[in-house]
Give the backbone structure.
Amino acid sequence: MSILVIGGTGTVGGRVTAQLRQAGHDVRVASRHTGPRFDWTDPGTWAAALNGVPTMFVLLPDQTEMPEAFLPEALRAGVRRVVLHSDRGLDVMGLGHLQKAEAQVRDSAPEWTIVRPDWFQQDFETFFRQPVIDGRLCVPVGDARQGFIDADDIAAVEVAALTGDGLLGRLVEVTGPRALSFGEVAAGIAAAIGRPVAFDGSPGAYRAAMRADGLPDGIVESLIEGYGRLRARGDTEPTGVVEEVLGRPGRDIAGYIADAAARGVWSPAG
Ligand SMILES: NC(=O)c1ccc[n+]([C@@H]2O[C@H](COP(=O)([O-])OP(=O)(O)OC[C@H]3O[C@@H](n4cnc5c(N)ncnc54)[C@H](OP(=O)(O)O)[C@@H]3O)[C@@H](O)[C@H]2O)c1
């Protein structure tokens, strides 16, 4: 029996796919670039992905709703178990599309697990990569400490939920083993690459940086509002879920930084 991995080509989904295959499972990956193509915005593409799979992993791309008709179609096609990749910041950041998706899954899937990760350590090689290379990172969360988690550890918890019964009916918040501020992470990266990486956690610096990148004002202001609530919430507490589920500590961000620096992630030419 295949396990369907929707969003299985991205940062986390790619790791879920790889770990499942490594453990010997048959995996069907679904995205806009797989054959057959799966597109959230095109209901005609859903049936081929859903055909004959009892278990599915769902990762929604940023700001993408799970359409109302999707889960009923999946259940009619025979899906029983749904593992939803969500976001630990959904309530504080007001991520309505994920709040809705969580409710849909909890209310209708016979077997479900919801995984809410904290910030990914790998964000520093995706959307924070260029700011790090440029030596100036702006995120308007001030000094509040975040539970940066390794995407491999997120995927490992999600694979455990897909393949075992220990996480059925649970909503788990996953974090790294310790929380750090963005300023502390920037200092750690600077030490590893031997170049300065300044951090500015103020809304003004973020607004200027996002405007320079061409992001529309409305989106920038709503992001600043959400990040402001994250800042007001203060330091996050690691949850210990990775340790509980995997029986080992999650990777500390210091290990991630050393590895990413060795891979040349922040080399200007790379
Ligand atoms: N970054 C963080 O720190 C963080 C923390 C907690 C939670 N999250 C949550 O994690 C999610 C993002 O995870 P990620 O970074 O692993 O995602 P990602 O790397 O951006 O991958 C997105 C996946 O969705 C697919 N996709 C995009 N548009 C699609 C469409 N219209 N139809 C079907 N598939 C589509 C992509 O493949 P194709 O391009 O081939 O379609 C890809 O497989 C978000 O829900 C976010 O809220 C993020």
Notes: The domain at 2-117 is CATH 3.40.50.720 (Rossmann fold). The first helix runs from residue 11 to 22. The beta strands are 2-6, 26-30, 55-59, 81-85, 111-117, 136-138, 170-174, 198-200. The chain has twelve helices and eight strands.
